[in-house]
Design a protein that fits this description.
The chain has 52 residues and is mainly alpha-helical. It has helices spanning 9-18, 36-49; strands at 2-3, 34-35. Strands 1-2 form a two-stranded parallel sheet. The two termini are 21 Å apart. The relative contact order is 0.19.
């Protein structure tokens, strides 16, 4: 899951919880969120090392 400053899963959960609404979420799926900024840094690092 990639997140940034746009509408996405993380911001949806935060906004729904602030409104006191119930949000049904699958509990049998696991992900490791990463920010778009960190993803870009990692991609640039890999590209510069030619280890891809």
């Amino acid at each position: 899951m990639v997140y940034g400053h746009q509408k996405n899963f993380v911001t949806k959960v935060i906004n729904v919880s602030k409104k006191g609404r119930v949000l049904k979420i699958a509990n049998d799926q696991y992900r490791s969120p990463i920010s778009t900024h960190e993803l870009v840094k990692f991609i640039l690092y890999i590209m510069n090392t030619n280890e891809y």
